[in-house]
Amino acid sequence: MLIYNNSHYQHFAISTTAQGITAPVQKLANSFYKQFRYASENADLMQQNLELMKEKENMFIFSEDTVYSVFSGENKTKCRMYDITTAHVVFNTINKSNNYIIIDKGRKDGVVPDMAVLSPTGVAGVVSDVSENFSTVISLLNPNSRVSAKIIPINQVGTVVWVDADPSVAQVIDIPQHLIVSVGDSVLTSGYSDVFPKDILIGTVIEKFDNPNNTFLTIKIRLATDFRNLYNVYLISNLYKPELDALKSNFKNE
Length: 254
Known about the structure:
CATH class of the domain at 147-229: Mainly Beta
Radius of gyration: 26 Å
Largest sheet: 6 strands, antiparallel, barrel
Strand order of the largest sheet: 3-4-7-6-5-14
CATH superfamily of the domain at 147-229: Rod shape-determining protein MreC, domain 2
CATH architecture of the domain at 147-229: Beta Barrel
Order of helices and strands: HEHEEEEEEEEEEEEEH
Number of strands: 14
CATH topology of the domain at 147-229: Thrombin, subunit H
Distance between the termini: 113 Å
């Protein structure tokens, strides 16, 4: 009599079935672990960048800029002009005529309108409205956005506006045609604003040509911020803005 021993087959079948069940679970667990590790590493990187940005020269007022320091001969000191914190993007549009961003920080976090919003690589927008837990940002990809800028190396001041449907391209206006602007020139914030500190990257010149309708150049720039992949941002507040606003209010009717 022939007796067939199928214990090896049963063991193989059970093992294969178990692998079929556990493999996807393990894969999912690994995916969650990688996402958690990436999020943790990204948060650490954001914090490191935050600390570095806080100590940049354009975040301070230096006493050597004052009449007193020039004539007194005292050692220069610095006073913080801008404070900075981080936030996460929870909503972002790039294909509308008036694009906007929503971030996960609001009134309870100290966010107020007119705070500058930066991506890790450049200008992103300006806070417009604030609720208790969230804030709306007017994106740089919005016709209502106007950012005072300067072109380096000529140091000419103009204004960055978004007039195209392309979320990676904007224009610099109000630059006279007789000035020499080259492809590859950097466009930075001018500092002539109580919102953005000076010398924040906005973009790089990719095209320029004379405008037959006026005496200004048409200058296209590639934006430094990748709005298609905008997840983390920095919020910058001007600690002297209330004082500056009070002074400017004296000229509002002139």
